[in-house]
Amino acid sequence: GADVNRDVEDAQGVRESAFLKACRREPVPHTPVWFMRQAGRSLPEYKKVREGIPMLESCMRPELVTEITLQPVRRHGVDAAIYFSDIVVPLKAIGIDLDIKPGVGPVVENPIRTRADLAQLRDLTPEDVSYVTEAIGLLTAELGAIPLIGFAGAPFTLASYLVEGGPSRNHEHTKALMYGDPQLWADLLDRLPEITAAFLKVQIEAGASAVQLFDSWVGALAPADYRRSVLPASRKVFDAVAGYGVPRIHFGVGTGELLGLMGEAGADVVGVDWRVPLDEAARRVGPGKALQGNLDPAVLFASTEAVEEKTREVLDAAAGLEGHVFNLGHGVLPTTDPDALTRLVDYVHTQTAR
Ligand code: 1CP
Q: Where is this site: Transition state stabilizer (predicted)?
C-alpha cells in the first residue's frame, strides 16, 4: 500500500523535488512551476492522440492517460505532472448517467433535485476505477523524480454539476437547494466527501505525491454560507487523506473572500486566482500554509515582454511567502500558444534560481 509507494518515491528522489519542498515550505533550488489544465487543451500532440476518442473513454485507457499526462512534462519541463482525468470521472464510475459533451462540459442526465434523486449516489470502490491504479503505476515508472499530482472535484463543485445537470453561470438550482432545503443539501454534501476521498485515496495509494481538490465554482458563495454549508464537507475530504502525509492543495476561482476559510478546511497549499496578489493572499490565509498561483492565464496572449513583466509582479509578491508553487490563476486557456508556456517555465526557473 501507501508505505511501499513512499519507499519507491524516496528512491526516485520525488520527495526532494522542488515542488514537494515548496508545498512543505522548505527552501527550494528554484520556484517550482506547473499549470492547471496543462495536459490536453492547447497541445497539438494531445489533439492528435485524442482524435475520435470521447473524453470519458480516454480517461479509462491507462496507456492513453499516461501519454497525455506526460506530454506537457516533456514539452514544457514543468516541475510536476497532473493526472489526466476529469472531476466527474468518479461520479461516472459509481454509475451516474453523465457524459462530457465537446464544447460544453459535463452533462448529467437526471439532475439531483429531490430526496429520491440521492439514490443515484453510492460509495466508490478501488475496483470501480482500476484503470486509475493501472495508469498511475505506468506513470510513476516513467516520471522518475517528477511528482504526480492526483486530483478530485470538491463537494460544492461536484454538487453544482449534479444539481444543475451541467455547466452553470449562476448556480441557481444549486443555491435554491442549499437555501431552500438545507436538510437535503446537507444529506447530499454528506455523501460526496466519501466518494471524493475514496477517489483521492486510490490515486495516492497508486503513487500520487500530492493531491489537489478543485472547488472551481465555490467563489459564487459568500463566506458565511461557505462556512456553514460547504466547509464541513470539504474538511471531511482533507481529513480523510491527512494520514498519508502528501500535500493537499485547494483551489477555486474568485475565492478572494474565502481564502482563509479554504485553508481552514484543511489545505496545506492554497491556490489563488489572479484577482488577489499573493502577499495579500498570504495575509488572508495566515501562517503555516504555502500558496499556489497566480498569473492570469489571459496574460499569455500578450507579448513575451508583457508576460515577463506580469510574471515578475507575481514573483515579487511571492518573495516573502513561506512556500510558493508558481501556477496560473486558473486553467490554461484552450487557444494558448504552447511555446508561451514553455518560455514561462524557463523564465520562472531562471528568475528564481538560488
Ligand atoms: O491538465 C488537464 O487538462 C488535466 C485534466 C483535467 C482537469 C484537471 C480535465 C480534462 N478536467 C480537469 C478538471 C476539471 N473539470 C475542473 C476543475 C478545473 C478547472 O476549474 O478548470 C472542472 C470545473 C471540470 C469540469 C469540466 N470538464 C469542464 C468545465 C465546464 C464548465 O462548467 O464550464 C469541461 C469543459 C470539462 C471537459 C474536459 N475536462 C478535461 C478536458 C480535456 C475536457 C474537454 C473535453 C474534451 O476534450 O473532449
A: 86
Q: How many Cβ atoms are within 10 Å of 225's Cβ, its own excluded?
A: 15
- Provide the terminal-to-terminal Cα distance of the chain, rounded to the nearest Å: 36
| Total tally of structural domains belonging to the chain | 1
Question: How many angstroms does the Cα of residue 98 sit away from the middle of ligand 1?
Answer: 14
H/E segment holding residue 195: helix 182-206
Q: Over the range 50-67, which residues count as b (16 or more CB within 10 Å of their CB) and which as e?
A: beeeebbebbbebebbbb
pTM, two decimals, is: 0.96
Protein residues whose CB sits closer than 6 Å to any atom of ligand 1: 37-41, 55, 82, 84, 86-87, 100, 102, 105-106, 151, 167, 214, 216, 331
Residue 110: asked if its preceding bond is cis (omega within 30°), the reply is: no
Expressed as residue numbers, the domain containing 253 is 2-352
Structural element, H or E, at residue 133: helix 130-143
Q: Is 41 a catalytic residue?
A: yes
Cα 67 from chain centroid? 19
- Which one is catalytic: 15, 24, 41, 235? 41
Q: What was the ipTM of the complex prediction? A: 0.91
Instruction: State whether residue 24 is helix, strand or coil.
Output: coil
Q: Is 25 among the catalytic positions?
A: no
**What cell does 206 get?**
497508486
Q: What is the whole-number distance in angstroms between the Cα of residue 325 and the centre of ligand 1?
A: 21
36 within 8 A of 334, measured Cβ to Cβ: no
Residue nearest atom 42 of ligand 1, based on CA coordinates: 40
Q: How far apart are CA 228 and CA 267, in angstroms?
A: 18
Grid cell digits, residue 192: 460526496
228 is catalytic: no
Instruction: Provide the β-strand partners of residue 108.
Output: 98
Q: Which of these, 185, 212, 201, lies nearest to 241 by C-alpha position?
A: 201
CA distance 277 to 342: 23
Please give the distance of CA 130 from its chain centroid, rounded to a whole number: 21
Query: pLDDT tens, 237-288?
Result: 999 999 999 999 999 999 999 999 999 999 999 999 999 999 999 999 999 9
